[in-house]
Design a protein that fits this description.
By secondary structure, the chain is of the alpha+beta class. It has four helices and nine strands, in the order E-E-E-E-E-H-E-E-E-E-H-H-H.
Length: 165
């Protein structure tokens, strides 16, 4: 995703009079359960309590994927293997206050979770829960994020990133 970082021109149905969407980076954190099935991590947003993935603003000096990995640690205590392969983009309106929204576009990067830290910066501010991808897709409000979650397959990802698919 070269060049994705500051603002993106976008025309959509957001309720504000802005044509620029701000870039963010998100982490699709995943693991295998005891039966070998894929699970993805959802967290609740601090402001609305809705189900989301860890996401945040670009961090100067870090790639999009590295920024996503930092957010996954800060918001959920995730440590793991980042795959610098954007799974897709989704749009949402970040609520800034009553009647104030900021349109954002999030580039999503996968992280294979190796460890969940007990202490992390936003501990106690969010709920964290593991779901099968199809279930997670039905819990998020953003249709494009739902599609990314529903279609997520770590095996296919491995093939794509290794040039085998």
């Amino acid at each position: 995703m070269q060049g994705f970082g500051q603002t993106l021109k976008r025309a959509d149905s957001f309720s504000i009079d802005a044509e620029e969407a701000i870039a963010q980076y998100g982490a699709l954190c995943y693991r295998r359960d005891r039966k070998g099935r894929t699970e993805v991590l959802l967290i609740t947003s601090r402001d609305t309590g809705r189900w989301v993935i860890p996401k945040g603003w670009p961090v100067k000096g870090l790639s999009g994927g590295e920024s996503a990995r930092r957010e996954a640690f800060e918001e959920a205590g995730v440590e793991g293997e980042l795959i610098e392969h954007c799974l897709g983009l989704y749009a949402y309106a970040k609520v800034l206050g009553p009647g104030r929204e900021l349109p954002c576009i999030v580039a999503v990067y996968p992280i294979r979770v190796e460890k969940m830290r007990k202490d992390f910066p936003e501990k106690g501010q969010r709920r964290l829960e593991w779901f099968r991808p199809a279930k997670a897709a039905g819990l998020v409000d953003e249709p494009e994020l739902g599609e990314i979650l529903a279609g997520f397959d770590p095996q296919r990802l491995a093939e794509d990133t290794l040039g085998g698919g």
